[in-house]
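Standup notes, structure subgroup. Blocker cleared on the 5-O-phosphono-beta-D-ribofuranosylamine input:
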Amino acid sequence: MQFPPFGQPPFPLVLPGRSVIQMPVSKLFRLGVLGSGQGSNFVAIAEGIASGQVPAEVALVLSDVEASGILAQARSRGLPASYLPPGKFRTKLDEEAEKSLVAQLQAAQVDLVVLAGFMRVLKNDFLRAFEGRIVNIHPSLLPCFPGLQAWKQALDYGVKVTGCTVHFVDAGIDSGAIIGQQTVPVLDHDTPETLHQRIHAAEHELYPRCVAALARGDIAIHGRRVVWRPAV
Ligand code: GRF
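Run returned:
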Protein backbone atom coordinates (compact mmCIF):
# COMPACT_ATOMS: atom_id res chain seq x y z
CA MET A 1 0.00 0.00 0.00
CA GLN A 2 1.23 3.50 -0.87
CA PHE A 3 1.18 5.99 1.98
CA PRO A 4 1.35 9.75 1.48
CA PRO A 5 4.76 11.20 2.36
CA PHE A 6 5.79 11.83 5.94
CA GLY A 7 5.50 15.42 7.06
CA GLN A 8 4.23 17.85 9.63
CA PRO A 9 0.54 18.63 10.09
CA PRO A 10 -1.70 19.37 8.31
CA PHE A 11 -1.29 15.90 6.92
CA PRO A 12 -2.75 14.97 3.54
CA LEU A 13 -5.82 13.56 5.26
CA VAL A 14 -8.01 11.62 2.88
CA LEU A 15 -11.22 13.59 3.30
CA PRO A 16 -13.12 13.75 0.02
CA GLY A 17 -14.48 17.18 -0.78
CA ARG A 18 -12.54 18.94 1.99
CA SER A 19 -9.61 21.22 1.42
CA VAL A 20 -6.51 21.00 3.56
CA ILE A 21 -5.88 24.19 5.48
CA GLN A 22 -2.35 25.52 5.19
CA MET A 23 -0.96 27.53 8.09
CA PRO A 24 2.08 29.78 8.17
CA VAL A 25 5.33 27.90 8.54
CA SER A 26 7.15 28.80 11.73
CA LYS A 27 10.73 27.90 12.58
CA LEU A 28 9.98 25.84 15.66
CA PHE A 29 6.92 23.63 15.80
CA ARG A 30 4.43 25.60 17.90
CA LEU A 31 2.07 23.95 20.36
CA GLY A 32 -1.21 25.31 21.69
CA VAL A 33 -2.09 23.31 24.79
CA LEU A 34 -5.61 23.13 26.24
CA GLY A 35 -6.36 21.64 29.65
CA SER A 36 -8.79 21.83 32.54
CA GLY A 37 -6.95 20.00 35.32
CA GLN A 38 -3.63 19.54 37.04
CA GLY A 39 -1.64 19.57 33.81
CA SER A 40 0.70 16.65 34.44
CA ASN A 41 0.69 15.75 30.73
CA PHE A 42 1.49 19.34 29.85
CA VAL A 43 4.38 19.21 32.34
CA ALA A 44 5.66 15.98 30.74
CA ILE A 45 5.63 17.67 27.31
CA ALA A 46 7.23 20.86 28.66
CA GLU A 47 9.96 18.75 30.28
CA GLY A 48 10.42 16.89 26.99
CA ILE A 49 10.94 20.25 25.29
CA ALA A 50 13.36 21.42 27.98
CA SER A 51 15.41 18.22 27.67
CA GLY A 52 15.52 18.42 23.88
CA GLN A 53 13.42 15.27 23.39
CA VAL A 54 10.53 17.25 21.85
CA PRO A 55 11.62 19.70 19.09
CA ALA A 56 8.84 22.21 19.68
CA GLU A 57 7.87 25.26 21.70
CA VAL A 58 4.78 26.04 23.74
CA ALA A 59 3.11 28.98 22.02
CA LEU A 60 0.11 29.20 24.32
CA VAL A 61 -1.65 27.37 27.17
CA LEU A 62 -5.38 27.91 27.61
CA SER A 63 -7.75 26.59 30.25
CA ASP A 64 -11.47 26.84 30.88
CA VAL A 65 -10.72 26.62 34.63
CA GLU A 66 -9.20 29.75 36.09
CA ALA A 67 -7.60 28.03 39.10
CA SER A 68 -6.35 25.00 37.17
CA GLY A 69 -2.97 23.43 37.81
CA ILE A 70 -2.14 23.58 34.10
CA LEU A 71 -2.27 27.41 34.08
CA ALA A 72 -0.17 27.56 37.25
CA GLN A 73 2.36 25.12 35.76
CA ALA A 74 2.60 27.14 32.55
CA ARG A 75 3.00 30.46 34.36
CA SER A 76 5.65 29.03 36.66
CA ARG A 77 7.63 28.21 33.51
CA GLY A 78 7.17 31.71 32.12
CA LEU A 79 4.95 30.47 29.27
CA PRO A 80 1.99 32.42 27.85
CA ALA A 81 -1.10 31.11 29.66
CA SER A 82 -4.67 32.42 29.74
CA TYR A 83 -8.02 31.61 31.21
CA LEU A 84 -10.68 31.07 28.56
CA PRO A 85 -14.13 31.85 30.03
CA PRO A 86 -16.22 28.93 28.71
CA GLY A 87 -19.60 30.66 28.62
CA LYS A 88 -22.98 29.35 29.57
CA PHE A 89 -22.69 25.60 28.96
CA ARG A 90 -21.33 22.89 31.26
CA THR A 91 -19.85 20.41 28.78
CA LYS A 92 -18.91 22.56 25.79
CA LEU A 93 -17.74 26.08 25.01
CA ASP A 94 -20.36 28.57 23.92
CA GLU A 95 -20.08 30.16 20.48
CA GLU A 96 -18.25 33.25 21.68
CA ALA A 97 -15.75 31.22 23.71
CA GLU A 98 -15.06 28.93 20.78
CA LYS A 99 -14.48 31.94 18.49
CA SER A 100 -12.07 33.40 21.02
CA LEU A 101 -10.28 30.05 21.32
CA VAL A 102 -9.78 29.82 17.55
CA ALA A 103 -8.64 33.45 17.35
CA GLN A 104 -6.11 33.07 20.17
CA LEU A 105 -4.63 29.89 18.74
CA GLN A 106 -4.42 31.39 15.26
CA ALA A 107 -2.82 34.58 16.59
CA ALA A 108 -0.25 32.42 18.37
CA GLN A 109 0.40 30.61 15.05
CA VAL A 110 0.13 27.16 16.54
CA ASP A 111 1.02 24.19 14.36
CA LEU A 112 -0.61 21.62 16.64
CA VAL A 113 -3.37 21.84 19.24
CA VAL A 114 -2.59 19.50 22.12
CA LEU A 115 -5.52 18.54 24.34
CA ALA A 116 -4.19 17.61 27.75
CA GLY A 117 -7.16 16.89 29.96
CA PHE A 118 -9.47 19.46 28.36
CA MET A 119 -12.90 18.54 29.69
CA ARG A 120 -15.15 20.21 27.13
CA VAL A 121 -16.33 18.84 23.82
CA LEU A 122 -14.96 20.89 20.92
CA LYS A 123 -17.33 21.65 18.08
CA ASN A 124 -17.36 22.19 14.36
CA ASP A 125 -15.86 25.67 13.90
CA PHE A 126 -12.88 24.78 16.04
CA LEU A 127 -12.47 21.37 14.39
CA ARG A 128 -12.65 22.96 10.94
CA ALA A 129 -10.12 25.65 11.81
CA PHE A 130 -7.54 23.09 12.98
CA GLU A 131 -8.50 20.06 10.92
CA GLY A 132 -5.87 17.32 11.13
CA ARG A 133 -3.89 19.32 13.69
CA ILE A 134 -5.59 18.47 16.99
CA VAL A 135 -4.44 15.61 19.20
CA ASN A 136 -5.72 14.20 22.49
CA ILE A 137 -4.65 11.65 25.08
CA HIS A 138 -7.17 9.19 26.45
CA PRO A 139 -6.64 6.85 29.43
CA SER A 140 -7.55 3.54 27.74
CA LEU A 141 -6.61 1.50 24.72
CA LEU A 142 -9.12 2.92 22.28
CA PRO A 143 -11.52 1.97 20.80
CA CYS A 144 -12.20 0.30 24.19
CA PHE A 145 -13.67 2.50 26.90
CA PRO A 146 -14.14 5.92 25.31
CA GLY A 147 -15.67 8.65 27.47
CA LEU A 148 -15.29 9.40 31.15
CA GLN A 149 -13.33 7.43 33.79
CA ALA A 150 -11.92 5.02 31.24
CA TRP A 151 -9.66 3.39 33.86
CA LYS A 152 -12.74 2.54 35.98
CA GLN A 153 -14.59 1.24 32.93
CA ALA A 154 -11.61 -1.06 32.21
CA LEU A 155 -11.41 -2.28 35.82
CA ASP A 156 -15.17 -2.90 36.04
CA TYR A 157 -15.13 -4.76 32.72
CA GLY A 158 -12.35 -7.04 33.94
CA VAL A 159 -9.77 -6.56 31.18
CA LYS A 160 -6.25 -7.70 32.08
CA VAL A 161 -4.50 -5.06 30.01
CA THR A 162 -5.44 -1.44 29.47
CA GLY A 163 -3.33 1.65 28.78
CA CYS A 164 -3.47 5.01 27.04
CA THR A 165 -3.93 6.29 23.52
CA VAL A 166 -2.84 9.43 21.69
CA HIS A 167 -5.17 10.13 18.77
CA PHE A 168 -6.20 12.80 16.30
CA VAL A 169 -9.41 14.56 17.26
CA ASP A 170 -12.44 14.34 15.02
CA ALA A 171 -16.11 15.16 15.60
CA GLY A 172 -16.76 11.97 17.61
CA ILE A 173 -15.92 11.12 21.21
CA ASP A 174 -12.37 9.70 21.37
CA SER A 175 -12.85 8.33 17.87
CA GLY A 176 -10.08 9.87 15.72
CA ALA A 177 -7.18 8.04 14.07
CA ILE A 178 -4.77 6.48 16.57
CA ILE A 179 -1.21 7.84 16.65
CA GLY A 180 0.26 5.82 19.51
CA GLN A 181 -0.69 3.53 22.38
CA GLN A 182 1.02 2.25 25.51
CA THR A 183 -0.18 -0.74 27.51
CA VAL A 184 -0.60 -0.96 31.29
CA PRO A 185 -1.37 -4.31 32.99
CA VAL A 186 -4.39 -4.48 35.29
CA LEU A 187 -3.30 -6.07 38.58
CA ASP A 188 -5.52 -8.22 40.81
CA HIS A 189 -5.26 -5.80 43.73
CA ASP A 190 -5.85 -2.67 41.63
CA THR A 191 -8.34 -0.03 42.72
CA PRO A 192 -9.53 2.62 40.26
CA GLU A 193 -7.01 4.99 41.87
CA THR A 194 -3.94 2.72 41.60
CA LEU A 195 -4.76 1.79 38.02
CA HIS A 196 -5.36 5.41 37.08
CA GLN A 197 -2.01 6.36 38.62
CA ARG A 198 -0.09 3.82 36.50
CA ILE A 199 -1.97 4.87 33.35
CA HIS A 200 -1.07 8.49 34.10
CA ALA A 201 2.61 7.52 34.38
CA ALA A 202 2.36 5.76 30.98
CA GLU A 203 0.73 8.88 29.49
CA HIS A 204 3.72 10.96 30.56
CA GLU A 205 5.95 8.73 28.40
CA LEU A 206 3.61 8.34 25.45
CA TYR A 207 2.42 11.92 24.90
CA PRO A 208 5.86 13.59 24.58
CA ARG A 209 6.95 10.73 22.26
CA CYS A 210 3.95 11.28 19.98
CA VAL A 211 4.25 15.08 19.98
CA ALA A 212 7.96 14.74 19.15
CA ALA A 213 7.16 12.46 16.21
CA LEU A 214 4.56 14.94 14.93
CA ALA A 215 7.00 17.85 15.33
CA ARG A 216 9.72 15.96 13.46
CA GLY A 217 7.34 15.08 10.65
CA ASP A 218 7.86 11.38 11.37
CA ILE A 219 4.19 10.54 10.92
CA ALA A 220 2.18 9.84 7.81
CA ILE A 221 -1.55 9.29 7.77
CA HIS A 222 -3.75 7.42 5.36
CA GLY A 223 -7.39 7.37 6.33
CA ARG A 224 -7.44 5.88 9.82
CA ARG A 225 -3.95 4.38 9.60
CA VAL A 226 -1.13 6.40 11.10
CA VAL A 227 2.36 5.13 10.33
CA TRP A 228 5.62 6.14 11.96
CA ARG A 229 8.81 6.64 10.01
CA PRO A 230 11.04 3.71 10.94
CA ALA A 231 13.91 4.60 13.27
CA VAL A 232 17.28 4.42 11.51
C1 GRF B 1 -5.39 12.35 31.64
O1 GRF B 1 -5.68 11.19 32.37
C2 GRF B 1 -5.81 12.19 30.21
O2 GRF B 1 -5.82 10.88 29.78
C3 GRF B 1 -7.21 12.73 30.20
O3 GRF B 1 -7.21 13.78 31.12
C4 GRF B 1 -6.21 13.53 32.10
C5 GRF B 1 -5.39 14.79 32.22
O4 GRF B 1 -4.50 14.73 33.28
N1 GRF B 1 -7.57 13.15 28.86
P1 GRF B 1 -3.45 15.90 33.50
O5 GRF B 1 -4.24 17.18 33.72
O6 GRF B 1 -2.58 15.97 32.31
O7 GRF B 1 -2.71 15.49 34.74
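Discussed briefly. Confidence is low (pLDDT under 50) at residues 13-24.
Next: hand off to the docking folks.
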